[in-house]
Design goal:
This protein is α/β, with parallel strands linked by helices. It has 19 helices and 26 strands. The strands form six sheets. It has an eight-stranded parallel sheet with strand order 9-6-5-4-3-2-1-10. A six-stranded mixed sheet has the order 11-16-15-14-12-13. Strands 18-26-25-20-21 form a five-stranded mixed sheet. Bound molecules: alpha-D-glucopyranose (GLC).
């Protein structure tokens, strides 16, 4: 690729560092224009020098754009096509937050494999996924695209998602670097401010997992880090990403996030932004053209700029080589991929992604006379946000799976015929957020379950008929006032194409729910941010001392904890044992626990292993998830589950950002059991 680089003019080099949508090449293609795209200030010649394409409808369209482009390309360097396959392409998988509820890394990997097959067939070579932003604030619209609040779960699922894409040959771009999930007040695009220690200890873990698995690209985030926009932040892109995380691939901005540095007021104009971007280590500029318009002059004045441009272009050419575009710019072999198993992968993953939070009378018997109420009784758009090429017409509504004596899908809660409902034996209320109430630019200040649902539940509860609520939502919601009226509560974060079948199969026991919450459900939204791996503080709550961590009006406890989830089976955990209570780094304990299914129903459960470092040179969380295993147990079957502790489980970053382990006492928690050991 170095020989090819030498042949390029500066204009051709800068074109390789620019990404635009397909309708700039073929005018009558689907258009969606906002931000800098409204005026790219590019000539026809400039358009045909650009190097990568944002989004594509199908393989034919990709061929059309590629062939028209190559006709005009002097060196026949193919375009590379990238797009947002966040949770599926045509067959929509559960959203990432729903997938995180499964605590099943291998199903997540298989879902990514299925999505990759469809994406490649559609003409994409790169997906802008996984989104590995740690998310602790349910007001933020994009928590639905994340793997939730835990760094370890984020690390593992980001890693497995990239492995799934990679195994099929789909390149991946992990995003949004970095710490975008900490947007203040949960407001998308808002300020982010955190210490380097917080970044290294918690917020980098997801990106690290993706990069360790071989993510090919990293997308910069809209937010600032230490008051410098991530897109022009040399500390983030060179010191943290290249040196600390050892990333060698291509960096790309988010949608016109380079020009947004002008609105951040850290760039005086587009050419200032362009120079700051290339110096910081930004390779591709997405959906704006300041590189092409400004860096030729900058390179003429400063050879260092030209050197940085050459380094970036070489990485882009290597990326195209990795995508085998020089072998076949049309990737025709992808048309032969058998993507027919995507629905099966979606169903298996969705089955394990639904969470049972309260249960008095599920599963239902098919003979039970049911009233089916609520928007989702007949809503077909169950795909969640970022459902790429998913088509609601390909899904079916819940009513198709549930034979209801009485059904009402109207939002107006006073249309319900209580007299009719009284003739039935069980009420299923399928309610929640629609797909467009979460996702990018869809943050909410109020995450309480809407008052009309609470009013409806109160009215229905007077009928003394058991009520099952199925909550479809892109985020944790505050359910505190609704819970007393609910007998059985199922929650999911949008399960994709197979939603209705999975919800119905779970209600009737064909599917035994095994999901667990990847994010804390607040008792009151005033508690936000509330997450499980908090620090002790100097005044931890106590009943006796009034001057402690507390609110006057609300308890400190969440409504539902991270990791909480019920099953139709009854699991017990006994005999938590450590192989040795005094340990060295060369002889860390093996942890054993006996798990028994005390019920007559086969079920799956996830054993979550938490660690507490009792004393350290920096404050450590009250507990941290460090390993987990999901197992299936037949009725009355017991298994001894083993975990081998590792040095990584005990390590943390000190104030010098050095990863260390300190001797001392550690506590292991599994469910309500605990054991201690001392590290010498
Ligand atoms: C959007 C999103 C990013 C997405 C990109 C391309 O603004 O922030 O997640 O990948 O633009 O669509």
């Amino acid at each position: 690729m170095k020989d090819l680089l030498k042949k390029l003019t500066i204009e051709e080099k800068l074109g390789q560092l620019t990404m635009i949508p397909p309708f700039f090449y073929i005018k009558d293609l689907k258009k969606e224009v906002f931000g800098a795209l409204t005026d790219m200030k590019l000539s026809e010649e400039g358009v045909f020098q650009t190097g990568s394409v944002l989004g594509i409808q199908n393989h034919d369209e990709m061929n059309l754009v590629q062939s028209k482009y190559l006709e005009k390309s002097r060196h026949k360097i193919p375009l590379i096509f990238m797009g947002d396959v966040i949770h599926g392409t045509t067959t929509i998988m559960p959203t990432p937050l729903a997938q995180a509820s499964s605590f099943n890394p291998s199903l997540v990997r298989k879902g990514a494999q299925a999505s990759a097959k469809e994406a490649l067939k559609k003409g994409l070579q790169v997906t802008f996924s996984p989104m590995s932003d740690l998310s602790r604030d349910p007001r933020w619209g994009r928590v639905v695209e994340s793997y939730g609040e835990d760094p370890y779960l984020n690390y593992i699922l980001s890693k497995e998602t990239v492995k799934g894409y990679k195994s099929e040959g789909l390149l991946s771009c992990v995003k949004h670097f970095a710490a975008y999930g900490l947007s203040e007040a949960g407001q998308d695009y808002n300020t982010v401010d955190l210490s380097r220690l917080n970044l290294f200890e918690y917020y980098l873990e997801g990106y690290r997992g993706a990069i360790e698995a071989g993510a090919d690209m990293v997308m910069t985030s809209f937010n600032t880090f230490e008051y410098v926009p991530a897109t022009t932040n040399e500390y983030l892109l060179r010191d943290v990403l290249r040196k600390h995380l050892k990333f060698k691939g291509v960096t790309i901005s988010d949608y016109d996030s380079l020009l947004q540095t002008i609105y951040h007021r850290t760039s005086s104009c587009d050419c200032d932004a362009a120079i700051k971007g290339i110096k910081a280590g930004l390779d591709i500029e997405m959906a704006s053209s300041s590189y092409m318009r400004c860096l030729k002059e900058a390179a003429n004045k400063d050879p260092e700029i030209l050197k940085l441009i050459d380094e970036a272009v070489l990485r882009v050419l290597e990326l195209k080589k990795k995508a085998k575009l020089f072998d076949d710019p049309y990737r025709s072999e992808h048309l032969l991929i058998d993507a027919s198993h995507a629905k099966e992968a979606a169903y298996k993953l969705a089955k394990e992604s639904i969470v049972l939070l309260k249960n008095e009378s599920l599963p239902l018997n098919k003979k039970t006379k049911v009233s089916l109420l609520g928007k989702y009784a007949t809503e077909k758009h169950v795909l969640g946000p970022w459902s790429w090429h998913g088509d609601p017409k390909d899904t079916d509504e819940l009513a198709k799976h549930i034979k209801a004596e009485y059904m009402n899908d109207s939002e107006s809660f006073f249309d319900y015929d209580l007299a009719k409902i009284k003739q039935t034996e069980h009420i299923i209320l399928a309610i929640g957020e629609l797909y467009h109430e979460s996702g990018e630019a869809h943050s909410k200040a109020d995450i309480n379950l809407s008052s009309h649902y609470i009013e409806l539940l109160e009215n229905l509860s007077k009928l003394n008929i058991p009520i099952t609520v199925v909550l479809y939502t892109g985020r944790p919601q505050v359910l505190t006032n609704a819970l007393p009226y609910i007998n059985n509560l199922l929650v999911h974060f949008h399960l994709g194409s197979m939603t209705s079948k999975v919800v119905s199969d779970t209600i009737y026991g064909i599917n035994n729910p095994s999901g667990r919450l990847p994010m804390t459900f607040p008792r009151h939204q005033g508690q936000i941010p509330i997450y499980y791996n908090r620090l002790s503080t100097g005044r931890p709550y106590s009943e006796t001392n009034p001057y402690v961590l507390k609110y006057l009006d609300v308890s400190n406890e969440p409504l539902f904890d991270f990791g909480y989830g019920l099953s139709y089976s009854k699991f017990t955990y006994k005999n938590l044992e450590l192989s040795n209570s005094v340990a060295t780094l060369n002889n860390l304990p093996t942890v054993k626990v006996t798990v028994t299914n005390e019920s007559d129903v086969t079920g799956k459960t996830t054993i979550l292993l938490y660690i507490k470092d009792e004393f350290a040179s920096v404050a450590r969380p009250v507990k941290e998830l460090k390993q987990f295993k999901k197992i299936s147990l037949k009725p009355h079957e017991s298994k001894v589950v083993e975990f081998k502790l590792t040095k990584k489980d005990l390590s943390f970053y000190n104030q010098k950002l050095k990863k260390i382990v300190e001797p001392g006492e550690f506590t292991i928690f599994i469910e309500n059991l605990e054991q201690k050991f001392t590290l010498k």
